[in-house]
Write a structure and sequence with these properties.
single chain, alpha/beta, 7-stranded mixed sheet, 3-stranded antiparallel sheet
Length: 388
Amino acid sequence: MSSSFAPPTTAASHSSLAVERVRAASLRPAGSPPPADVVALNMGEPDFDTPVPITEAAIAALREGHTHYVDLNGDPELRELIAVQSSAIAGYPIGAEDVLVSHGGAAAITASILALVNPGDKVLLPEPTYSLYLDAVELAGGSVVYVSNRDDHHLDLDRIAEHASDATMIILCNPVNPTGAVFGREELAALTEVLDEKTLVLVDEAYANLIYDDTNFAPALAVPELRGRLVYIQTLSKTYAMTGWRIGYVVAPTPIAADIRLVHRTMNGSVNAAVQRAALTALRSGAELTSPMLTEYRARRDYVVERIAAIAGAHMVVPDGAFYAFVKYPGTALSSDVARLLLEGGLSVRAGAEYGPSGEGHVRLSFAADIPTLKEGLDRLERVFTQL
């Protein structure tokens, strides 16, 4: 039965640029079921269940009556804990007034950009990088300037310097979705030398606790040169396998945090009360709960690296963090076409162009899946790649 609601025939002409980009990235018509027997390596979601102590904390919170609206800025006890932990990382005092508990990392990113970017403002996106940043900047009316990273996926400071004049903000994902590159302390400090002194630096560290090698990674909070201009975004989704819980946070200088809070409360209201109580357990437990998952991710990363290296014409830079492989495929086909061919071959991945212009020629696959699933998925990838 067709819907009784019939939108005007001109409705499509009102779609925003962000809507058009998301629509173009889709490999299937909206609402269509996935093809049968597809190995799904397209999603950035841990395959682990949330650790039991976190789940039990949420159940206890519900039984204790944490079922009402809470402080629009976040549970006061949770904000205080985040402030204490952030102060320990930064080496200087961060107060609860500098913290906003958000509806996941996505809401933290979007609220921050809407609060700080005006129509026409220039925002730099070193890329390949997470596609939400582009959408949020366009939603704010800002102007994105893509700056391609080096071949090793690290920041090209010379290229950034060429575009840095009058930039309102630069946005980094660290470790990077989709490449797994890790920007180190020296790299982030050097970045400030090529930026205008008024340029804000938004750093999304969703994967900061998924680091595999002895890199020089340091949280952006721990880089003194960023102090006063840093908008720090974190989420519990990836580290604690809490994607469906929708909880993240922002740490920023007090005046900036106040503006972000105003936008976030308009978009989202207060965050789920019981989830915030469970987040206390997660953050207090830390590595005790996450180390087993990290060990498994490392083994999966190593397996994917070995398999890709054995496929003729395929190449990838070994990811130091996150749980993605950004694979350069043989031939010159568009990444959207290669993603479709892989889907027809029974493997779902993301087209590299979704992550910026220099992502063309690549596909992104997630290794947040067990080894048997990865083996079957990579077998299918190899069969398609040999035909390119």
